[in-house]
Amino acid sequence: MIHSISSSVLAICKDAAGVAGNLFAIGLFVSPIPTFRRILRNQSTEQFSGLPYIYALLNCLLCTWYGTPLISSNNILVMTVNSAGAVFQLIYIILFITYAEKGRKVRMLVLLLAVFGLLAIVVAGSLQILDRTMRWIFVGLLSGASLISMFASPLFIINLVIRTKSVEFMPFYLSLSTFLMSTCFFLYGLFNDDVFIYVPNGIGTILGIVQLVLYFFYSRRQRGDSTEPLIVSYG
């Protein structure tokens, strides 16, 4: 009886954390919209890079595959948030390709095809692994490594903030959303006892705290003109 109640409480906590993580992720998914408004207004991608969207798409696709019942159990909310993220990134990439100059357009198309090719290899290869545990470990390592690399990308911004002593390139609400989403999925992974979710998101939570601390420390010193963010990592 006690074990049953305990399991029910854990399940409720896990679902609550997962739903909250999905909601906070929406803030991250829509964060590049100001950038693309500028691109649409100017009919040019200017000096913006499309690579972050390519990396984000690959990360979302790998994590979506990890969240499917074929790979892991009770991770539907991981599948939903990352499939939504993949749709957003694909839209951004299509817009970027549409307004990029010819050379960058071709490079982005090649990279986009490479992402889908790599995903096809991962899906086909993992399905060849008949042992379910080994399949879970194989895809989990790939998705976890991808997620950690995405969470590590703000290290450049953190270094920039420390060097310039300015938070111009680190919007507060973006950093806050990243922290909240990472924390939610860290808890989700703990409640679900899934190391490939709580370890990457635990790292994301720590980096989120660092960003917020730096923001509050340096925002008092200098406030430059707001610069539109290109993209941010999510889990």
Describe the structure.
- The protein contains nine helices and no strands.
- It has 235 residues and is mainly α.
- It starts with a helix and ends in a 17-residue tail after the last helix.
Label this structure with key terms:
235 residues, mainly alpha
Q: Strands, helices and their partners?
A:
Layout: H1 2-29, H2 33-42, H3 51-67, H4 76-99, H5 102-127, H6 132-152, H7 154-164, H8 172-191, H9 195-218
Helix pairs in contact: 1-4, 1-8, 3-4, 3-5, 3-6, 4-5, 6-9, 7-9, 8-9
Largest β-sheet summary: none
Would you identify the regions where 5 or more consecutive residues have pLDDT less than 50? 224-235
Basic shape: globular
Nearest-integer average pLDDT: 85
| Element string (H = helix, E = strand) | HHHHHHHHH
**What is the helix content?**
over 70%
Radius of gyration: 19 Å
How many DSSP E strands?
A: 0
How large a portion of the residues is in β-strands, by DSSP E? under 5%
- Structural class from helices and strands? mainly alpha
Q: Distance between termini?
A: 35 Å
Alpha plus pi helix count: 9
Write a brief structural summary.
With 235 residues, this protein is an all-alpha fold. The protein has nine helices and no strands.
